[in-house]
Write a structure and sequence with these properties.
With about 350 residues, this protein is of the alpha+beta class. The protein has 13 helices and 13 strands. The protein has four domains: about 70 residues, no CATH class; about 90 residues, no CATH class; about 80 residues, no CATH class; about 80 residues, Alpha-Beta Complex (Aldehyde Oxidoreductase, domain 3). Helix 5 runs parallel beside helix 6, helix 8 crosses helix 9 and helix 12 runs antiparallel to helix 13. It is globular, with a radius of gyration of 26 Å.
């Protein structure tokens, strides 16, 4: 079925399908009417949002019926938080050229205001304007890495508090937690749930952040406070044990934890100079773990003693674990060749 023109008010059942399949656009002269773009005027379509993005949301359909096409705001918006990037690629890009000119390429310092496009107050103001304009979904991204923008968590929380769904795009460069490998990662999880002193703070914070967002989705107030209480009181740990026991069909959680043994062959690498850790390449670390035998060998993997900040010569940097002496040797060779951890 094809039509040159369709009116939403009089033919509501067919308009949704036809608007999308026939490439119709709003008729500026008749409220609620859509029409085909005439040959030679294809560029005019760019003046309107694509129907699949907005036409089926109730509030926006209302505006269409009123003929208020230019008053329609996007249903979802991308919010670029920063141009600062955690990558230092060798390939040429506009970002690299810009940062070299600004003399901040090698610094990669998220605290330096010159690597950002905006401060947190400006970002909050811009976010509020988008939400007040009718945006219902926000994608936080970056010309670089959005998590390098100090205050990203505040922006996501601000959007959530106003009923806006949020997504964050990240390049996932830095590993979260200290251990990479099945048992090592489980040990990190347990240290967070048990509130141990040596718990990886980044994993703890990410856990609280995600728990807070889930609690908010349930419409519960003081979400962050409730998440922190559940963790610090030990309730979260007890619930975790309950879930694991239910999955196993046995009440043997503690026995299982006692059986978590790391690879019998290990090697700790220490920093060869004093400096600052400028990069921990997630992809490189992941490949190193595979060389060591993960994930097939659950006891293999690596433990990152330090991921960020200053480090002194002779300080422990990374420990490699494997059940195979030859794989450990291959892992050491791979580590030396690829240098996934950079110190400057």
């Amino acid at each position: 079925m094809t039509l040159d023109t369709i009116n939403v008010k009089t033919d509501y059942e067919n308009y949704q399908h036809l608007v999308q399949t026939q490439g119709l656009v709003p008729n500026q002269r008749v409220a609620g009417e859509f029409t085909k773009v005439k040959k030679g005027l294809v560029k005019d379509k760019m003046r309107f949002l694509f129907p699949s993005n907005w036409i089926f949301h109730d509030q926006i359909v209302e505006k269409v019926l009123e003929g208020d096409y230019f008053g329609i705001m996007p249903y979802c918006a991308e919010f670029v938080t920063t141009m600062n990037c955690s990558n230092r690629c060798e390939i040429p890009c506009g970002y690299k050229l810009q940062k070299i000119m600004e003399e901040v390429w090698e610094k990669n310092n998220s605290q330096n205001p010159r690597v950002h496009m905006q401060n947190i107050e400006f970002a909050k103001n811009l976010l509020d304007r988008l939400i007040n304009g009718g945006v219902k979904g926000m994608i936080f991204t970056g010309g670089g890495e959005p998590f390098l923008f100090k205050g990203l968590e505040d922006l996501v929380a601000r959007a959530s508090e106003q009923g806006v769904d949020s997504v964050v795009y990240t390049n996932g460069n830095y590993p979260v937690g200290n251990g990479i490998g099945p048992i090592l990662e489980m040990q990190d999880v347990l240290s967070v749930l048990q509130n141990l002193k040596e718990t990886p703070e980044d994993l703890r914070e990410k856990s609280l952040f995600l728990a807070t967002e889930l609690i908010k989705l349930c419409g519960i107030k003081d979400a962050r406070k409730k998440a922190e209480e559940a963790l610090s009181s030990g309730k979260a740990y007890e619930k975790f044990k309950e879930i694991i026991n239910a999955q196993n069909g046995k009440n043997n959680f503690d026995l299982k934890v006692q059986g978590l043994k790391l690879g019998k062959f290990k090697k700790t690498i220490k920093a060869n100079k004093t400096g600052r850790i400028t990069e921990v390449n997630n992809k490189g670390i992941n490949s190193l773990c595979r060389v060591l035998g993960t994930p097939e060998t659950i006891s293999a993997g690596v433990y990152l003693h330090k991921q960020r900040g200053k480090i002194a010569k002779g300080e422990s940097l990374i420990t490699l674990y494997s059940e195979s002496k030859s794989k450990l040797k291959d892992g050491l060779k791979y580590l030396k060749e690829t240098k996934p951890i950079a110190i400057k």
